[in-house]
Amino acid sequence: MRHCRRVTQLLAALPESAETLVLQLTSRIALLEIGRIAGIEERESQGLFEEARAVAERLGDPRGHAFLLTSYGRLCGLAGDVAQYLACAERAAELAEGSDDATLAFEMHTVLAHAQLAVGRLDPARAIAERALAELARVAGLSEAVGPSTAPVFCRIWWALASAYLGNAAEAQAGLEALLADEKEGGLEALYGAHGFLCEVLRLRGDLAGALAHGRRAVELAEERGSPFSRVEAAAFLGAAELTAGDVATATRTLETALGLARARRAALWYEPRILATLADAKRAAGDRSGARALLAEARESVERGRGWRLSACDVELARVRLLASEPVPDRAAVERALESVDALAAELGADPYRQMAELERARLAQTLSVTPRRAYGS
After folding, report:
1. pLDDT for the residue numbered 76
2. For residues 29 and 48, is the Cβ–Cβ distance under 8 A?
3. Which residue has the higher pLDDT, 187 or 107?
4. By CB neighbour count within 10 A (0-12 exposed, 13-18 middle, 19+ buried), where does 180 fall?
């Protein structure tokens, strides 16, 4: 970070030329990328983006402009502003599609698939990733041109994750396991990411032993060689698996550590609502309903402001269902409304696993609270 800042300072003292403009642009993109991984203040990142955008426009370089947009967009998204991420990714894809650079188009479509996932557009995310991977296989020389880029690996990861949340978890598991067959492919970020997302997919499938094994491996890799971002992301998935497996104390420690790091380093804050909701569930399970209520209030406020990974809204509402049902004298109407909220979100997003979770909660609660069983989906 210090080196890149020093480069921008030195360049400011040099006469402007095409070469110095390129260096001004790339040094600022590098600062945004480092900030995304290690954490950066919002005001500083916005200032870097505005400066770099002016340089990109003077250069008339669509490739540089597209990479600037994706760097800043990802940074905004991971800090919680997923709408800004999508806007930047869509503009970057437009720039790439207007060029004759198939490599750039593939890389920008990979980012766009991720941004669509972030805002909960699961069908478009899967379709974009699928088309990009088809192009990679079809266009002569494209795979070689992409070279050492991690984009192909991440494109497969985003396809798998969208597939899992759409209800095709077996497909997703197969895709992620194929990536892990060669642990050298894609570098550390892709490797821990594949383990982390496989933890999530296996949790959704009910394979808790597998989920815990991959989650622990993701955390191990992130702790050994990863960034604050990777450590928060891996812990968010592992903590959810630990809680689902019934290890409340361990899950609480994992999630509290992740939340503290995310806030201290402003890294992976798009997981904040999900972490808060899962931590609230853990507090409730430990008998601390007041602590659970406070955490859940924070999570709901964040979701209502449009912050964070959109699917987190489902986690928040499920945690609310469980908290309401755990009260000494539960309000059946409130529990029913909360369940209906989960149903509506799952239907809106096409998130089949969350629909199934709501059905399981409804069936369980119907035995104790007389909550009305829901008719079969589509009946």
Report:
1. 93
2. no
3. 107
4. middle
Specify whether the CB–CB gap between 216 and 238 falls below 8 A: yes
Between CA 275 and CA 42 the distance in angstroms is: 21
Q: How many CB atoms lie within 10 A of CB 354?
A: 24
Pick from 1-5, 221-225, 271-275: least confident: 1-5
Residue 87 has pLDDT above 60, yes or no: yes
Dist CA 25 CA 60 (whole Å): 12
Map out the domains of the chain as residue ranges. Answer: 268-379
User: Is this structure's pTM higher than 0.85?
Assistant: yes
- The backbone torsions φ and ψ at residue 228, rounded to the nearest 5 degrees and listed phi first, read -55, -40
Radius of gyration (C-alpha) of the chain in whole angstroms: 22
Three-state DSSP state, 79: coil
Helix intervals (H) in 60-182: 62-78, 82-97, 102-118, 122-138, 142-146, 151-165, 169-180
Closest CA to 77 of 158, 172, 132, 192: 158
Lowest mean pLDDT among 12-26, 191-205, 207-221, 346-360: 12-26
Cβ atoms of 336 and 151 within 8 Å: the answer is: no
Please, what's the b/e burial string for 56-76 (b: 16 or more CB within 10 A of its CB; e: otherwise)? beebebbbbbbbbbbbbbbbb
DSSP state of 185: T
